[in-house]
Amino acid sequence: MHIRVQAEAFDLGAEAQAFSAAAEGAGAIVTFTGLVRDLSGALTAMEIEHYPGMTERAIAAITDEAVARWQLVDALVIHRHGRLGPGEQIMMVATAAAHRAEAFAAAEFLMDYLKSRAPFWKKEVTAEGADWVAAKDADEAALRRW
């Protein structure tokens, strides 16, 4: 299991390749990458804040749960913080399991958790100012199904 919270960009291809190469015994690997979206057409940046240590512990705990629940061979979570522009990668989840159903379910579980419960605070910055991103009902509903 690998958890990284970092400001630096990551190379999706290199991360997926390294994860796959180390996932001995896996029959399926699922990867997902989240990007900064500019839904309004006016986004300058997304600023993501977190508390070092607390964030990693929270993500590790939920990743441990996913590993146990779906009997994963391995899991990777990378989440960025700092100022990110539209189209930049925010996060990556990778799961490795014996079968695809478990790898997909675990990846979806981790993504839903990261979107709704991981201790990150996001602020959308436009030319008019900045606003904190509020929790969305759809994200909460997605998390409840687990």
Structural features, described:
With 146 residues, this protein is an alpha+beta fold. It has one domain: Aldehyde Oxidoreductase, domain 3, CATH 3.90.1170.40. Helices cover 36% and strands 35% of the residues. The chain contains four helices and eight strands, in the order βαββαβββαββα. It has helices spanning 12-22, 54-69, 100-116, 137-144, and strands spanning 2-6, 28-35, 43-50, 74-80, 82-84, 89-97, 120-126, 129-132. The strands form two sheets. It has a four-stranded mixed beta sheet with strand order 1-4-6-2, sandwiched between helices. A four-stranded antiparallel beta sheet has the order 5-3-7-8, with no helix packed on it. α2 (54-69) runs antiparallel to α3 (100-116). The longest helix has 17 residues, at 100-116. It is globular and about 50 Å long. The mean pLDDT is 95.
